[in-house]
């Protein structure tokens, strides 16, 4: 039986591991990165550190195998990370000088650390919150992803959010189908067939 609970600081290693093991459009990216933590620094760590009230994990007898993490106010979160999260990481990871098409996976993450994309005002008008969700294969299916999302949605709704959005890559067709099936609406097309999708709370 897999249970959902609020994430705790000691879950950091599990979140980073899950982020890495689902980091290749849902597949295991362990062999793609020299630094196994760099992808977690971008997509998991900041949420656990600066929005823990919207971080939930899915845990079974084998341990934490999934999570959903989000923020209430994407614009405010962006500003918080500029002040309190990225500066230390920018000292640790140099801004890559290689052209975009020649960067390693680690350098792609380092570029994001130095140049995080700003929020899209057109999306935030109705969907000011955003989220990331990842589950290891053993917990995929069985309704666990939906349960995690609904747990986060309830927390965001109670905090006053009118809507939440997420980004999904073009190669992650399973995730795109999952979100459409749940009722997410496409908001904007991303390069390479990806999309920003939204859910009204």
UniProtKB/TrEMBL annotation:
InterPro entries attached to this UniProt entry: Acyl_CoA_acyltransferase, Glycosyl_Hydrolase_84, GNAT_dom
Record has DNA-binding as a keyword: no
GO molecular function list: acyltransferase activity
Pfam family, any one: Acetyltransf_1
Enzyme class at the top of the EC tree: transferase
Presence of the UniProt keyword Glycoprotein in the record: no
UniProt EC number: 2.3.1.-
Alphabetical keyword list: Acyltransferase, Transferase
Domain N-acetyltransferase: 2-201
Protein name (Swiss-Prot/TrEMBL): GNAT family N-acetyltransferase
Phylogenetic placement of the source organism: Bacteria, Thermotogati, Deinococcota, Deinococci, Deinococcales
């Amino acid at each position: 039986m897999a249970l959902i609970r609020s994430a705790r600081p000691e879950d950091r290693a599990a979140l980073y591991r899950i982020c890495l093991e689902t980091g290749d459009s849902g597949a295991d990216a362990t062999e793609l990165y020299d630094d196994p933590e760099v992808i977690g620094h971008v997509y998991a760590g900041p949420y656990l550190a600066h929005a823990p009230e919207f971080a939930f994990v899915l845990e079974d007898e084998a341990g934490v195998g999934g999570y959903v993490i989000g923020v209430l106010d994407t614009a405010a979160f962006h500003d918080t990370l500029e002040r309190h999260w990225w500066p230390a990481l920018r000292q640790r990871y140099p801004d890559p000088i290689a052209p975009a098409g020649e960067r390693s996976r680690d350098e792609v993450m380092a570029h994001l650390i130095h140049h995080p994309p700003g929020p899209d005002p057109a999306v935030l008008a109705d969907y000011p919150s955003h989220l990331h969700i990842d589950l290891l294969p053993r917990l995929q299916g069985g309704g666990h992803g939906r349960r995690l999302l609904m747990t986060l949605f309830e927390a965001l709704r109670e905090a006053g959010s009118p809507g939440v959005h997420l980004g999904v890559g073009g190669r992650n067709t399973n995730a795109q189908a999952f979100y459409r099936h749940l009722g997410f609406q496409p908001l904007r097309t991303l390069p390479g067939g990806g999309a920003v999708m939204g859910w009204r709370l």
